[in-house]
């Protein structure tokens, strides 16, 4: 289910949404890494700065999903998307996958804004990625994933991801938790319309 053995060209054709999101991650990270490019301007314009959201800059609930703090942050989230996104894009289709991904990411950023101080700054697609984990958890709970190996991978993965959320310094715990919960709720509400997935 999560083993990717497609050629690059085939992957791009099969999963255009995931490829596009990963490309956006990469382009923005590359631009922000250019020595002579005003990285602070890019970060200042797109980051989720709670005090600016409070002042009406609501695009900051969306744009943080696509930028990352450093290389390890960028590579972990992008690889997670490339590995765990394809089954859902295949199952849901392009439009519904985009909706799921964005709603989970925006929800994570919204609750970060509502529950954390106005001085808090947040970036990264972790909330959206955790939303995918939440959706998978709903599928497991509803027995929509029937392959034993996939079930045995998903549950430990979610548990480890949550554990790391609480022990790693500087992690947006609120964003991770509410991204996960949003994906879980959407998944549970969608289960009747989904076919079993092996």
From TrEMBL:
Entry annotated with the keyword Transmembrane helix: yes
UniProt record, GO biological process: proteolysis
GO molecular function annotation: serine-type endopeptidase activity
Subcellular location, record wording: Membrane
Pfam families, A to Z: Rhomboid
TM spans (from-to): 12-38, 58-84, 96-114, 120-138, 150-167, 173-191
Keywords, sorted A to Z: Hydrolase, Membrane, Protease, Transmembrane, Transmembrane helix
Organism (species): Falsibacillus albus
Topology class, membrane: Multi-pass membrane protein
Stated name of the protein: Rhomboid family intramembrane serine protease
Domain Peptidase S54 rhomboid: 56-191
InterPro entries named in the record: Peptidase_S54_rhomboid_dom, Rhomboid-like_sf, Rhomboid_protease_S54
Keyword Transcription regulation: no
UniProt GO cellular component terms: membrane
Family, similarity comment: Belongs to the peptidase S54 family.
């Amino acid at each position: 289910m999560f083993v990717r053995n497609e050629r690059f060209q085939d992957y791009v054709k099969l999963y255009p949404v995931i490829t596009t999101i990963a490309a956006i991650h990469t382009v923005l990270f590359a631009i922000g890494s250019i020595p002579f490019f005003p990285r602070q301007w890019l970060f200042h314009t797109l980051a989720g700065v709670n005090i600016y959201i409070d002042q009406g800059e609501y695009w900051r609930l969306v744009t943080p999903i696509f930028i990352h703090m450093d290389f390890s942050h960028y590579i972990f989230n992008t690889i997670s998307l490339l590995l765990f996104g394809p089954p859902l894009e295949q199952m849901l289709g392009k439009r519904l996958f985009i909706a799921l991904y964005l709603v989970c990411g925006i929800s994570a950023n919204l609750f970060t804004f509502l529950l954390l101080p106005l001085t808090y700054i947040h970036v990264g697609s972790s909330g959206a990625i955790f939303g995918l984990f939440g959706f998978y958890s709903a599928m497991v709970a509803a027995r929509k994933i029937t392959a034993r190996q996939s079930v045995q991978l998903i549950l430990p993965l979610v548990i480890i991801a949550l554990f790391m959320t609480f022990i790693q310094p500087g992690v947006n715990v609120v964003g991770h938790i509410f991204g996960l919960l949003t994906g879980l709720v959407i998944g549970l509400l969608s289960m009747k319309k989904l076919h079993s997935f092996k």
